[in-house]
């Protein structure tokens, strides 16, 4: 059910952008034509390598066992909390990362920051414009995120009521793209 909701929401976002099929299929989603150009570019690093540049996030990815996902062939969009944002997480998040109970919590947190397919900033801007100032996108966890315009940038509201702004330039990877955000988006539960 969650997979169907995630796929449906991602398809709605992509359809709202007014683009056709770029011939790039990922997890049941039709990616935008602009995404095919990014994927075909000579990107030497994958998402796992880009995450490795942020030691705190790399620690969480390793604890959740999600390195193979971020190093795989399937394209994803990663909303990467800045180092300062990760430093604000409570101590309970960092304690016992090797414990099975903590793995489920960390996995849920990370899945709430990963979107199926490659969604560029231009795609998000188009979706917000076409959605009369608001677009809804689904995370890998199946939870909806709401994207709106804030000044010259984009703001993402998470299911738990918190929000983050996209900061800096997107970082294309061999298997997707990274958008740095200034806050952690906690899961709804």
TrEMBL record:
Signal peptide from the UniProt entry: 1-20
A Pfam family annotated for this chain is Fasciclin
Is Ligase given among the entry's keywords? no
Keyword field contains Signal: yes
SUPFAM superfamilies the UniProt entry points to = FAS1 domain (SSF82153)
Q: Which SMART domains match?
A: FAS1 (SM00554)
Q: Which residues form the FAS1 domain?
A: 44-185
Entry's Gene Ontology cellular component terms: extracellular space
Which domain of life does this protein belong to? Answer: Bacteria
- Supply the alphabetized keyword list: Signal
Record's PROSITE patterns?
Answer: FAS1, PROKAR_LIPOPROTEIN
Q: What is this protein called?
A: Putative surface protein with fasciclin (FAS1) repeats
